[in-house]
UniProtKB/TrEMBL annotation:
<feature type="disulfide bond" description="Redox-active">
    <location>
        <begin position="33"/>
        <end position="36"/>
    </location>
</feature>
<feature type="site" description="Contributes to redox potential value">
    <location>
        <position position="34"/>
    </location>
</feature>
<dbReference type="InterPro" id="IPR013766">
    <property type="entry name" value="Thioredoxin_domain"/>
</dbReference>
<dbReference type="InterPro" id="IPR036249">
    <property type="entry name" value="Thioredoxin-like_sf"/>
</dbReference>
<feature type="domain" description="Thioredoxin">
    <location>
        <begin position="1"/>
        <end position="105"/>
    </location>
</feature>
<keyword id="KW-0676">Redox-active center</keyword>
<dbReference type="GO" id="GO:0015035">
    <property type="term" value="F:protein-disulfide reductase activity"/>
</dbReference>
<feature type="site" description="Contributes to redox potential value">
    <location>
        <position position="35"/>
    </location>
</feature>
<keyword id="KW-0702">S-nitrosylation</keyword>
<keyword id="KW-1015">Disulfide bond</keyword>
<feature type="site" description="Deprotonates C-terminal active site Cys">
    <location>
        <position position="27"/>
    </location>
</feature>
<dbReference type="InterPro" id="IPR005746">
    <property type="entry name" value="Thioredoxin"/>
</dbReference>
<comment type="similarity">
    <text>Belongs to the thioredoxin family.</text>
</comment>
<dbReference type="InterPro" id="IPR017937">
    <property type="entry name" value="Thioredoxin_CS"/>
</dbReference>
<feature type="active site" description="Nucleophile">
    <location>
        <position position="36"/>
    </location>
</feature>
<feature type="active site" description="Nucleophile">
    <location>
        <position position="33"/>
    </location>
</feature>
<dbReference type="Pfam" id="PF00085">
    <property type="entry name" value="Thioredoxin"/>
</dbReference>
């Protein structure tokens, strides 16, 4: 499943609602962030092989979303299930990201 961009809080709320009980992984990134450019394709790859919903939030374009979740470093991944935050991971470690996703599915 392709990674969907989120541009505002209402986009995120809709995506979380549509996902139901499925795991949702939100990647908070910046276009100028080197590690974000490395981990982005890995998230895409994982979303094509594992059954979860992947979303991307550009912190510079969706400041309301980044502000609500108090994003201070990129990349930050926030995990949701049933519309509720169930975890968070900071950094571009692909193996750790895969492990975090598998542990929450």
């Amino acid at each position: 499943m392709p990674v969907k961009p989120v541009t505002c809080l209402s986009d995120l709320d809709s995506a979380l609602s549509e996902a139901g009980s499925k795991l949702v992984v939100v990647d908070f990134f910046a276009t100028w962030c080197g590690p974000c450019k490395v981990i982005g394709p890995k998230l895409e790859e994982l979303s094509n092989t594992l059954d979860f919903v992947a979303l991307k939030v550009d912190v510079d374009n969706a400041e309301d979303v980044a502000g609500k979740y108090e994003i201070k470093a990129m990349p930050t991944f926030i995990f949701f299930k049933n519309g509720q935050k169930v975890g968070e991971m900071v950094g571009a470690n692909a193996e750790k990201l895969k492990q975090e996703i598998n542990n929450r599915m």
